[in-house]
Design brief:
Largest sheet: 2 strands, antiparallel
Strand order of the largest sheet: 1-2
Strand content: 15-25%
Helix content: 25-40%
Number of strands: 2
Shape: flat
Structural class: alpha+beta
Distance between the termini: 23 Å
Radius of gyration: 14 Å
Length: 65
């Protein structure tokens, strides 16, 4: 069985989840990792610009991995 990684986010109050398997080509996986890194940097910059901003879904917590 392929190792899988789930990514999820909250959009309009609903959770969207995607599962990626390790069988993706290394090029696709590299592209995904690059997008993830870019998103993390964007969220970090947003937190610094707006210290009181909550990025958590309603009633939930944000978990960084």
């Amino acid at each position: 069985m392929d190792e899988a990684t789930e990514i999820s986010f909250w959009e309009g109050g609903a959770r969207s989840a995607y599962t990626l398997t390790k069988s993706l080509t290394s090029n696709s996986l590299g592209c995904f990792q690059s997008m993830r890194f870019s998103l993390q940097n964007s969220l970090r910059a947003l937190r610094e610009a707006e210290p009181g901003l909550s990025l958590a879904p309603p009633g939930g917590k944000v978990r960084e991995t």
